[in-house]
């Protein structure tokens, strides 16, 4: 975390944006590790690129840019679930990328091989369903990312094809209200327009 904090300013523990992300992360963690929810750590960096990654040891990082980018709360939870899935599936034990690589490529697009990303996507869908969120949100996040300039479209489309059949539970839980407040907070602080998925 020190290298991340040196690269990007972290939001402090009492910050409303970080508290919001913590609550969402804990909703997912409660599905898989209900007796140790407080052992999982969620950090928010003040970076306007849509970024999220797991750093191992039950620690996760998302950016202001990701929070501003997603369509709704379910999409943000999908990203958190995907990163939690990497931890739960022990992907760090199999092929742990260095902290430097995670920082440089630390996005929700790709930081493991395609099969590993697909496994994390599938587990994220399962976690979304358990927590009562829209199981199609993981697919929608990948769709949004594939529309960004410079995105690795072929990798994202391969992941989307894998998820298409699991996109069955369209939960009516977009959770726009609180996310809009948090998004406004980020936009007011940054003073910069941020690209948003539609």
Automatic annotation (TrEMBL):
Cofactor: Zn(2+)
Cofactor note: Binds 1 zinc ion per subunit.
GO biological process, one term: proteolysis involved in protein catabolic process
GO function term, MF aspect, one: metalloendopeptidase activity
Pfam families, per the entry: Peptidase_M48
Cellular component annotations (GO), alphabetically ordered: membrane
Sequence ranges assigned to domain Peptidase M48 in this UniProt record: 20-93
Entry-linked InterPro entries: Mito/Outer_Membr_Metalloprot (IPR051156), Peptidase_M48 (IPR001915)
Keywords: Hydrolase, Metal-binding, Metalloprotease, Protease, Zinc
Stated family: Belongs to the peptidase M48 family.
Protein name: Peptidase M48 Ste24p
Species whose genome carries this gene: Thiorhodococcus drewsii AZ1
């Amino acid at each position: 975390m020190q290298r991340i904090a040196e690269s990007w300013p972290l939001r402090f523990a009492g910050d409303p944006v970080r508290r919001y992300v913590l609550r969402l992360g804990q909703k997912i963690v409660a599905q898989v590790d209900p007796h140790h929810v407080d052992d999982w750590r969620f950090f928010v960096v003040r970076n306007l690129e849509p970024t999220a990654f797991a750093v191992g040891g039950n620690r996760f990082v998302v950016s202001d840019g990701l929070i501003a980018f997603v369509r709704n709360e379910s999409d943000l939870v999908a990203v958190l679930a995907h990163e939690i899935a990497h931890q739960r599936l022990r992907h760090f034990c199999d092929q742990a990328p260095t902290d430097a690589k995670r920082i440089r490529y630390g996005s929700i697009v790709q930081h493991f091989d395609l099969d590993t990303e697909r496994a994390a996507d599938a587990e994220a869908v399962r976690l979304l369903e358990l927590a009562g969120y829209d199981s199609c949100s993981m697919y929608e996040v990948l769709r949004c990312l594939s529309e960004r300039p410079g995105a690795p479209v072929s990798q994202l489309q391969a992941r989307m094809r894998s998820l298409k059949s699991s996109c069955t539970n369209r939960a009516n839980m977009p959770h726009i209200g609180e996310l809009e407040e948090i998004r406004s907070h980020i936009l007011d602080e940054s003073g910069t327009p941020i690209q948003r998925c539609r």
